[in-house]
Every structure is written in structure tokens, then in C-alpha cells.
Amino acid sequence: MKIGVLGAGQLGRMLAISGYPLNHQFGFSGNTHNEPASLLGRMFALEDNTDNVNSLVEFADVITFESENTDVAVVKEINKTVTVYPSEKSLFITQHRGREKALFDQLNIPCAPYQMVNSEMDLRQALENIGLPAILKTATEGYDGKGQFLMRDASQITEAWSSMNGVESVLEGFVDFKRELSLIAVRGINNEYEYYPLVENDHHEGILRLSVAPARNIDKSVQKIAEHYMQTLLDEMDHTGVLTIELFETKDGLVVNEMAPRVHNSGHWSIEGANTSQFENHVRAITGMPLGDTTLTHPFCAMINIIGKTGDTDIVLNIANAHLHLYDKKERANRKLGHIAIMANSQDELDASIKKLKNFLP
Predict the structure, then answer these.
(1) What is the C-alpha to C-alpha distance for residues 177 and 141, in angstroms, rounded to an integer?
(2) In terms of pLDDT, which residue wins out, 202 or 48?
(3) Does domain 2-84 have CATH number 3.40.50.720?
(4) Structure confidence by residue, pLDDT tens digits, 276-292
(5) What is the DSSP secondary structure assignment for residue 274, as one 8-state letter?
(6) CB 240 within 8 A of CB 83
């Protein structure tokens, strides 16, 4: 089957790598021929053709997308000709934090208290309702800590609103959490489900730096609660493909933070660490193939992001249980250039391997 991907970044690159053994072909839409996925399939570049998206549609039997910031109107138009997975509804909801939280409320899924904000006056009123500390975020766009302002004092109101550049925003009550988790799952065309284990995530300056899978000391009941939230969301949005939810673990239980309607950075460990990676399962789902088993290949797994500078990758290549993935991207501050996956048979082995790779961590 010919799979078209809206976008040509590292996620599209890894989707193609996982999909070729299944006898699929790939095409990508992007700006230039120098994007991470450009050499892994037919590249429909804007620099060659201003109608590149339509050319991708003509190529493809099915379409998917890399980012929740994909234009819903474009997806709606494509759907008239070629099916796009995940659904328009998934995209519409997950690209707007207010709509996400409204859905969580509708489905009785715990999330932080919130209020939409469109002016400095709105922000003052929202603070009266939610209190401090709180986090002001743009309602759309924003990733890796961008478009966010942590408010600890009312004297920051003008500065916080100014940092939003006048766009619709959401004020969220600060969640006192023990750690950050994520859950990745996949839903097939015929309502089959597969779940990966909860993963523990460490961020630095808003950017994911380390994921550990499975998260340590997670009770089976907590995994089941997260899976219940996930299935409820998958079904409500009629979502086909991979969906990710980011959560906080608190003393009172799990609190859902946000969703991503796609393969996710915190699941890159699954390429070597699960019988079927998140990328392969997304490809299987959107092409109507049976979903793959998500059982771990090793009991202890981790993923380290390579950020800003590639560094000395020989260190990685000299570690027997480490796997290097570079994305063919030029170095730039805070840019995700690649990742390192680590597989281990014991906690001590995993910790020792992570220690050897400390230069890749902040």
C-alpha cells in the first residue's frame, strides 16, 4: 500500500523504516528535499511544486500526519479523495488545549483545573478562580516547553499575558506531581487495541531528555486506569492509529495533561524494546493490518534524546546494549537530532549504561 505522510521529519522517517518490511511504499510532503524523511520515499517538496499536497494525495492509498498542528481544513479536503488516519476529530481536538480539556471533563478523566484566556483581564479573572501557582499556555501550537509561562505571583500577570503575543490561551492550575508519565496505545480499524507500558519521562527546560520503560514501581492497577482513560479517548474520537497521553502521577492518582494523535518521542525506545514498535503498529493500524504484540523484548529499557549537538557517538557505538538513531538534521540549539535506545536485563545494567551516556544528558 502507498502511504502518504503530511510532513517529512524524523517521525515520518521512522514510520517508513518500520513500514518497508511490510511491503508498503511511502511519500512525504515537506518544504525541501533536505528533510529527515526525504530519502526514504517519494518526496513532494514545496520548493518544486506549490501543489505538493495534492501530488501526495494522487500518490497515496492512505494518508497520515506527523503533527497535531496539521491544518484540519487540509485534512478535511484530502478525506474527500483519500482516507486520512487518525480522524479529523482527533486532530481537531488534540491541536487545541481547551478542546482537549473539555473532552477530558466530558469523559470524567481527571485533568488540571483550567480556564480559557483571551485578554489580560481574562487572565486576572482566571487567576481569581484557579489561584497560584499556575501555568499560562497558548491554546494551540507550542511544544517542548514553548508557548508557556509559569506564574508564581500576581505581579507577573502583565508579563505572562505579553509572552502569549495576544493569542488565545489557557490558564492551568499547577499540578503537584511526583513524576511525569506517558502512555502510548494503538487502535486498529476494527476496534482492536494494543497498549505499551507506562513510561517515566524526565524533561529539562521543557524538552524530553530521558524516558524509562516501563516506569519504575508502577502498580498494575495504575496501568489499568491509564488504559481505561486511553480506550475511552480512542473510542470517543474514533481514533485509528497511535495515540499518546501525557500524565502526572500525583498522591491522589493519575492526572492527564495532554494528548498527541501520533507516534511520540517517549515511545522511541519501542523500536528495539518491544516486539512491535509504535511506528510499525501505527503503519499496521492505518493500513488495516493486524496489530502487533507490544510485549517488551527486555525488562528494562530507556531512551535518551540527542539535543542540539550530536556529540561523540562512538561512545554509543561502543556500548553493546545501546542503539544509535540519528535523524540527518543539522545541529541547532534545542533541536532533536537523534536518540539512543538502551536495552537491559536488570536495573543495575540499565543504570550503568545511562551513566556511560551522561554526556548526552543535561
Answers:
(1) 24
(2) 202
(3) no
(4) 999 999 999 999 999 99
(5) B
(6) no
